[in-house]
Amino acid sequence: MAEPLKVISKRWDVPDGHTLDGYLRTGGWVAGRAALDMDPDAILQMIKDSGLRGRGGAGFPMGVKWGFIPRDSDKPTYLVINADEGEPGTFKDREMMERDPHMLLESMVIGAWALKSNRGFIFIRGEYLWPGVRLEEAIAEAYANGYLGKDILGSGYDFDVTLHYAAGAYICGEETALLDALEGRRGQPRLRPPFPAVAGLYACPTALNNVETVCNLGFIVEHGVDWYRSMGTEKSSGPKLFSVSGEVVRPGNYEWPLGTTARQILEESAGGMLPGRRLKFWAPGGSSTPLLTADHVDTPMDFESISAAGSLLGTTAMCMFSDKTSVVDACLNWTRFYEHESCGKCTPCREGTFWMAQILERILDGRGRSADLDILEQICDQVLGRSFCALGDGATSPIFGALKYFRDEFEHLIEHGRLPDDIEGHAGPVGDNSGRLRPAASGRPA
Amino acid sequence: MLSAELRERAHEIIGRYPGARSALLPLLHLVQVQDGHVSDEGIAECAQLLGLSKAEVAGVATFYTMLKREPMGRHLVSVCTNFSCKVRGGQEVFDRLSEHLGVGHDGTTGGGELTLEHAECLGNCEGAPVVTIDYYNYECTDPDRAVELVDGLMRGEAPPPPTRGYVPTGIRDAEYRLAGLGPRDPEAMGVAITHARASDGAVPPPASGPGAPRATLVPSLGDEDGPTGDEGGS
Hints:
The complex is a heterodimer of chains A (446) and B (234). Chain A has 446 residues and is of the alpha/beta class. Helix content of chain A is 41%, strand content 11%.
């Protein structure tokens, strides 16, 4: 049986873990100092050997991704952190930046040193003001104490970080759209190739990684590849933050090795479903991953097992919903999200999400027609795989899953014009979760 | 037009990026500090500052949800209605606020006290349902408590401390932060932001020791002690 971990989340219970003092007291910058004494290529090799895969949704091997970055370019190389966490149900990067912002900065220095990059950007979604403030304060402390800027820790190596607040667009989590946004344009995805590794920010070689992904680097450097691979599975190694939300007793971020079953995380960490509610459907990695059912709850949460179960690991945001909740309502809610967030660049996604929302709306409203489900499926078919980027694919995920497993609920709505009687509506606020809240300092920091 | 003070800040922001146009989103946030929305004048000024056409700037300004084309009230109240909040009552919170305030999505109260919006996932699902004021989070709320919260704002009172964030002092102060300028009133909360500049690779780190205050971290802010714009911050 897997055990819960305290790796990425190791400082979350340290009250001053977000300050440089608290960070240094709890092992901060040990890895960074070691890395700056290492050969950059040796660090890249460790990353490759660790099997670390991207934590932002795609699961691409990080060592391979960074292997595409040319080592002999006469252009600068940039390190860009994707902190545009917007996938519905996902809140892991937010808590990491709030509680342990120095971990991200140290990890960036390690990565940038390996890439011989002297300039990094943190592209954070604008709504994340509080994690942004925590980062601002951490960046100021790091500069003032020689952990960022010129001659970091006397190594002769220079690295600068700019925190860049975005302005509210889910699509900017897509890496090429992020680059366009960071260049001051509408955040719309770019045609690939060229890939960002070769021609990214300002057409220069660019490493673009999710917050959680990069934060693994310090642990790999400090404790070694074997230690790292002792967590997780052969092909999905390492620790992972799981954001559990929905109708569970204790929603929250919980750290477990990849490959832990959804049931174990749900029951041992999140306290199971709310009293009187049974698990009906869930998304394993945010709303863009096909829905699964209670029958899948013993699936190990790793890239291979979740794919085999017919879904995607995504951001490991486990959105858990009960028998009292309508899956059609979930589909409509998420489809409206994609409709709003579609960037408009390609027709299948721009028009398709609009039509999908219209159809779901009338079904839920009791005005559904008998042909609607076929039409809905056809539209989804024409969006999936035909959109310019993954947003369109993601938009079809909840609907495909819902139609596959809960077609009877759609049919009931169309036939009777109302939801089945056992669907009761919302569960009320997370009242019993208040123990997890740590009110922030209000007013002047101590 | 941006005030002389904010215009100076604008040049400072532009100077941080290897490509000047990268400053556009921060500059549009800065326009919202000045005008409470992205005004036509603000678009023209960004275009002039960056050597872009007004159409290019308008194209960007209309793409992003947080850039508003209508003036916001003193505070921005956002209610998450995405599904992990909805199953915890987020929609009821929004509906009640909407009814109570008599404004819909993106509506502003008559006295300019606040703007209400329903938001997509705010990434705080463990505290569902979530309401934010000026992008600071109030978690685990319900319709009654949300009404209490906005009633205080309507009376012009400072809101209670959020569960995540500093006490909100107005959307324009939040926009000042979002422009990348740190706290608008450094005495009130937090330390100033430190930034790399365009010429990096490598910027000189500020000449300051541990715990050194904002004055040396952002030299041009060093002489300022209070709110810098036309709008009182607190």
